[in-house]
Amino acid sequence: MLKKLGLCFMLLSTSVFAQEKMVIGQTEIMTVAEAGLSFEARIDTGAANTSMHAVDLKVIGGSAKKMQDNVGKMLSFTTENERGEKKQLKAKIVKTSTVSNSQGRETRYMVELNVAFGKHKRKVKVNLRDRSHMDYKLLIGRNWLADDFLVDVAEKRIIGPVAAISVRESGLIFQTRIDTGAVENSLHATDLKVENGDEDMENNIGKQLSFTTENEKGEKQRLHAMITNTSLIRNAQGSEIRYMVELNIGEPGREYPVKVNLKDRSKMTHKLLIGRNWLQGHYLVDVSLKEND
């Protein structure tokens, strides 16, 4: 009986302790105060330290041969987020860090920066490396997460039946219909022109396509994208073949690459329709939410 009571108390204590921590998803929008930039960051419990994209590293006043001998000196570097926004920073080198990965071992400079998730800001040591070939320019490690956060890799966001969605390449925001009945995303597109186009749509896969899109406010933009494939769409009016391209689509600041078919939606209320290929694994749809929720 005592063992059972002890076990119950231990489980209850663990539960209460866990509830005091904030749940964070596998990717989140984080800000680096010194840069004045927001990043779509990868939350990585496998990494001991936080890591940020940095290029053009220069030790102010001259660099010693050994990186360790530069600790305490000021370092200038340039960082950049996923939207291509750049900022040059200066920070004191507080230590060096040797990191082992699939490419081998490398030594990186570490600086202290204020990294925030919403109102939760922490000053932590951040190692600097060229992450230009990586999807995420900021990686959040255990030194930022420790004591206050739980990571839920299955975490999904909730979205209503209509939402403000960005198509990053266009710079436009669309009042978008969220449609779980649609397999694919569909974007309003007119005046489609294929570079060196063929009459057979299948033969145009891999070629560049230009088209004009327009949101519900009448704001227009001419876009260029590669045709990734074609899609046969069946609806009440019959069937049609549409070109598909890959664009970065999502809530502003949370866009990610996804395939979208192109169609003249000028007679439709919503110029962008989001289907299951965008929602899957990322969102739950609550049809009771209002457009502005």
Mass-distribution shape: elongated
How many domain regions? Answer: 2
Structural class: mainly beta
The N- and C-terminal alpha carbons lie at a distance of: 50 Å
Q: Output mean pLDDT.
A: 88
- The CATH homologous superfamily of the largest domain is termed Acid Proteases
What's the CATH first level of the largest domain?
A: Mainly Beta
Strand order, main sheet: write it out: 2-3-10-4-9-8
Largest beta-sheet characterization: 6 strands, mixed, barrel
User: Proportion of β residues?
Assistant: over 45%
Report Rg: 24 Å
Low-pLDDT residue spans:
1-18
What percentage of residues falls in helices of 4 or more residues? under 10%
The CATH architecture classification of the largest domain is Beta Barrel
What CATH calls the topology of the largest domain is: Cathepsin D, subunit A, domain 1
Number of distinct helices: 3
Number of strands: 22
Describe the structure.
The protein is mostly beta strands. It folds into 2 domains: 20-152, Acid Proteases (Cathepsin D, subunit A, domain 1); 157-285, Beta Barrel (Cathepsin D, subunit A, domain 1), CATH 2.40.70. The protein has helices at 2-19, 142-145, 276-279, and strands at residues 22-25, 27-32, 37-43, 50-53, 55-59, 74-80, 86-101, 104-117, 120-129, 138-140, 149-152, 157-159, 162-167, 172-178, 185-188, 190-194, 208-214, 220-235, 238-250, 256-263, 272-274, 283-285. A 6-stranded mixed β-barrel has the order 2-3-10-4-9-8. Residues 23-159, 168-291 form the Retropepsin-like aspartic endopeptidase domain.
